[in-house]
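Weekly sync notes, structure subgroup
Attendees: PM, AL, DS (notes)

Item 1: joint prediction request from the bench team. They want all two components modeled as one assembly rather than separately. Inputs as received:
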Amino acid sequence: MGIAEWISAPLRYPFMVRGLLAASMVGGLSAVVGAFVVLRGMAFMGDAIAHSVLPGLAVGVLTAGREDRRALFWWALGTAVAIALGIGWVSHRGRVREDTAIGIVFAGMFALGIALISTIRGIAVDLMHFLFGNVLGVSTGDLHLIGAFGGAVLVTVLLLYKELVVVSFDPTLARTLRLRSSAYQYLLFVLIAVTVVVSLQTVGVALMLAMLIVPASTAFLLVRRLPAMIGVGALLGVLSGALGLYLSFYWSVASGAAIVLVAIGFFILALLLSPRRARLARHVGIR
Amino acid sequence: MTDVTFQVATGRQLAVVGPNGAGKTTLLRVLAGLLRPTSGAVRIHGHGPSRHICISYVPQRSGIDWRFPVSVSDVVMMGRIRRIGPLRRPGANDHRIVREALAAVDLDDLALRQIEQLSGGQQQRMFLARALAQEADVILLDEPLAGLDAPSRSEVLSLIARLRERAVTVLVALHDLGTAASSFDEVLLLKGQKIGIGRASEVFTEANLREAYGTCLHLADAGGGAIAIQDTACSGGEDGHR
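Output from the run, pasted for the record:
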């Protein structure tokens, strides 16, 4: 089988075309938002927001039924944004350390989600889809939602790019310039939340973190300027999404896992080839 | 900190000195509007610091993530974002001001370097360029000489001296009394409160220095005036002595 046929064969199936579009959009979008997650060291925060969506999905299934995807989307979005703002609020004025607060919310919401889902009949399939995604079940309506909300996130990042960079790089400068640092902080949390929700059906709750941090970290190893890091990261995210789905198609591997493994493969390649390899090694303490 | 009432005239350069824990950083952060005083007020051109974007605070270098993927000119441009305004991109005028600021600190040829590739002195000069690009009227520098070798120290000091041409008011937290006396118009001696402010020859009296540094300071008479020798083992060992 030639490479052209290898590429074109799955495109005969409309569900594969929709899946490829979804996986590519999600891969690119996650990498853009992920650049800020990586640079600000918010990986745990991103993971917590992703897992905290579960009870929202469970309530959606309980109230609207598992067929009403639109309702599930809104429940997930509402939950994710509420959690993002809640974690932001707790970490601003909480009496425990920020990572502790995030951990408590993370575990608590995840447990609540599992508890709620366990009351629904036929839970196994739902739970699997929520945790690991179901990219081949993406509908045209889902694509529209991903496009609209993902596009809104990208436009926001583009319009507020220089403020987001300053708040991330030098919060002290942001304050002496009288920028509303905490407002931008909350905004970033909300952008992560929206990204998580539009990505749910592709990679699921459990592997979402990888989409946020892996392509962005790979790009960090390869380039030295933030716009390039965002661009290269987005490209790698799109490639990981598409290539992962092809591997999943040909080898019958779970799609979310295949996408993440491809992204990790790119990361390892970059690690071996990167001019920054020495710096990263120093950073993690290996000589 | 209590009783730190003082004034600095526009365009003057003031060194803030005192032992570790004297409140030098705290004072600068209050002046920058980063900390709110529990009582008392800061007035800069008649307004509180939160009304200004003309105050530049240059933090100690240790507080910066140097691996951040930004170039020297990116960082200098950050000083301009409020003047550029939200939703807008830097214009030709902003790029010109950034170029001039970089030229003023002799970093033009390193403009595109990633910031981790700079030496300590170059990093400090980059922040001075950012303050210039910000068009700051008041520049607050927290220990700008810390961790620098002798040539870099004198470079940074001569750049600070050159700020006089721009009528910028400069306040610098310093460890070194000799540098404070030789390179600045006025000194402010602190130890939790104001011990003295004015010309170094008036402030660095034996009584004042003893009050600030206690027995950690040795004074030696060297003809023209007293030379203060800080006992670094003593002041540096602050934690051990607590």
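Discussion: Chain B touches chain A through 34 residues (CB under 8 Å).
Action: AL to compare against the crosslinking data before next sync.
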